[in-house]
Fold:
Amino acid sequence: MDPEITRQQVEAANAAALENMLAVQPAWVDVTPLGELFPDLPPMTLTHAGPPVTWGRMSGAQRGGVIAALLYEGWAKDPAAASQLAEDGLINLVPNHDLGGVGPMAGVLSPSMHVFVVQDRVSGRRAYSSIEYDSLFGCWDEHAMDELWQWNACFYPALRRALGPLAEVDLIQLMAQALMMGDELHSRQTASSVLLLRALASSITSENPQPAAIATLNQLAGNELTFLPLAMAAAKLIASAADGVPLSTIVTAMSRNGTEFGIRTSGTGSAWFTAPAPKVEGVYFPGYREEDAGLDMGDSAITETVGLGAFAMAAAPGIAGLVGKSHGELVASSAEMSQITAGRNPALAVPQWDMSGVLLGVDVRRVVQTGVLPIIDTATAHRDAGHRIIGAGVSRAPAECFTGALNTWFALNLSDEPAELDHRERVP
Amino acid sequence: MIASCHVRPDYYRDSVFLMRAAQEVRGAKGVLDVGMMMGTPANKRVLRAAGLLDAAGEAAGPGDLVIAVSAETQDFADAAVAAAIALLDAQVDGPAARTADAAHWASLEGAVEAEPKANVALISVPGDYAAAEARRALSRGLNVFLFSDNVALDAEIRLKTIGRAYGKLVMGPDCGTAIIDGVPLGFANAVPRGTIGVIGASGTGMQVVTCLLARSGMGISQAIGTGSRDLTSDVGGASTLQALDLLARDPATEAVVVVSKVPSPSVADTVVARLAECGKPAVANFLGYTPAGIAAGGLTFARMLEDVVPAVAHLSGSNWPAGRLDYWWPYEDVARAAQSECEHLAPGQDLIRGLYSGGTLCQEAALVLSDHGTPSSDATIPEVAGTITFPGDAHCVIDLGADEFTVGRPHPMIDLSLRSRLMLECAADPRVAVVLFDVVLGFGAHPDPATELALAVKAARASAADAGRELSFIASVCGTDADVQGLHRSETVLRDAGVVVLPTNAQAARLACLVAERKLPADDVCSAVPWKPGGPPPAVSRPLFGGPCRVVNVGLPGFFDTLRAVGAPATQVDWRPPLGGDPELANRLAAIL
Structure:
């Protein structure tokens, strides 16, 4: 094969993948229990963040998430029984990504838990995500379980009713506004959450009994991450639009389960390319130290996959303290990401970049060539089960994910081809 | 003695920086030797041969940095490693600090997107990765200046084939110098622009010719390096022929000069045939090689580098700058110098030791010696760089810039320590009469080589004096007064140290022969042959020329600093190996990126 043709084919494939991503028009259309969204899930199924993992290899915090979910479903009467169920291999563990969804942190969701449903107006494809509960950091104490029950019994149903008269909420417009108001749409969702509250306030009040309306409005008023699941689900729809373009080297998922970091790319099907999850560099809440920290975790890196989060750090001066860096450093690291991305998304403009769009399409070729590894904003969970959030910071995707994906790309597409300019070390 | 390695995984610094840092740490108390290198198989061999590689170092991959120390005690070794790490982390203009600078990029692709008008990629990354960078530069429509050496021959052939197919010129690999539209690439001297186009398969040869032209009041339209292997039968002169076509079509070029080390005869014949019909007056210098049966319409042969300029001057007819051809020592001066140098030598002191930084200058000296009937023999090539065994009973000229001497150490035009040490060794040998050497000035070279070599000469003379001997130091300086080091200034510094400084290398080598043999000179004349004019050049577009030359510098930051200093538009790629450091993956990637 003429290498030049190959190069042009890859460029064309990546351009097509980007075009598919840019065509997505994500809108929030529903709130529904996961089990209703997927009625055919096998019994005893829980979803989880990251690439596939077994109970035996699962990180502490994600195990905590499993225990909380089993308690919530009533499949286990106490934490010990829950652990035993998992230990015995009786729980069916499915990555959220395999269901077209994403879950924050541990990402462990069960059939009775509600999820936000986001739909692409153009293709009709759907993605889901969930509020970032304490249980998703691995906590199952009384407060954590209360939080789960309140959301699922009160707030989610109230939001579903509130959405009724609106039919849908356009997410691109809302995210574009939030970027102008200091959000990077991963760790900082302050503006987006307020914008969501503004959009819903009237119908929350009109469509719900007063006690439910008041409780829900209070919850939204006090939660600075309400919008996170909507941003994540929108990002999942955008990223997965690039799936399955032959020859494309664009990353369509980055995700971690606290044990492994995994990526998927457009031209390599559903294979995960994994490496040990990295440490999170950042700051800790009082009472916690670096030794307590678990490794990088959560499906939320889907936001970076479409150029939000750490890739758009320039938009969010307010986040610098949260990750223990200066704003200048954050601006530099998000600018650095332009060296590994294929294009921009003009619909999501960053004011600090003279209204250039966020970066779109991490290109495996460029990551391997430059050695610039994708940077990710994240919260930090405890290394053991049973804790809440302990800190926040940034992580870097591991190199091996990208070299693995590239080597597989070569095996798939150029397996018969002797390497161009192949030159092994000369033996004297 | 303790050998101890510290490995910093997945961390890259360029070899020039690492060698300087290692040099600095080497001076610390209790430290015997220090190596700082990327963990490629070739580098690990060097460290292993030096007895510096322990198990940790052996386990390092090509993308990992190895700090290898031998010291008297573990404490000294630990202190040296700590000092090395401090140097790595203290360097403020490192890749991390540079990301904020808009002119700095992590890959060629980023740089080219930011500077779409760039027309040349200057590549100085390690040889294992250089072909991949060049390949990608060609794909992006750039001409390539490939400074890197240790690039495989088959890779060079393939690159040049691709370059020709794209209409792009590949200068190199192992290309030391070029001047494109007045912009110096690599090692080059500050010379005026003019009408002479120079093509060189030898870096220093081209530097000498451009400097001598400048000294004679003539300027350069373009100077195009082609790489040291271009005129071998394997490569077949691919870049030289392509450059010749470019110069033939370049309206700013009125005459063409081709300079090379001794080429493959068949390739030389091809080049000569093309030169003869290029439509412009031409001078060829193949260091003594003269093709058989040349009828040569507009073609003149110059035997030595110094013969090129009179030949060119002949070509320019009425513009012959006779009064300005100031670099020929008159007979009386040579005789006086020979006599005065001979006076101090003892019987039995009759050998010449040539310590060269320029490969072509070294070959030229060997040619002079051979012309003189006193051929030189080779030095024993060392297993470990730095240990050189001279033949006991013959003249010897060595090119310290050759690959085998530059593994793990900077080029002798930058790092004068090896030459300084060898001067001392020569002074200790009672049979040595003359130390013959070159000093190369210009961009990229040592900031003040004359002063440092003058110190080495003084030290060598002192040690010989202790042994009751004197010996003769004879040199030539390649440069111009516009170079930062200054030609006149450098010559004066050397003369003050007792060095006999001649205007050209061939004259210096001839004087060395006379001194070694205690002879007086015969009357030396220039060997240039008159020239007959050729036809006018066709007017064609010039992708490489026409300027301004915009460079993407991939690798050594010093070249970028030079480009900025001369005001040339330039973009810097802070190169590092691809993830994992696998050169094969880099090559495969080059085909699709």
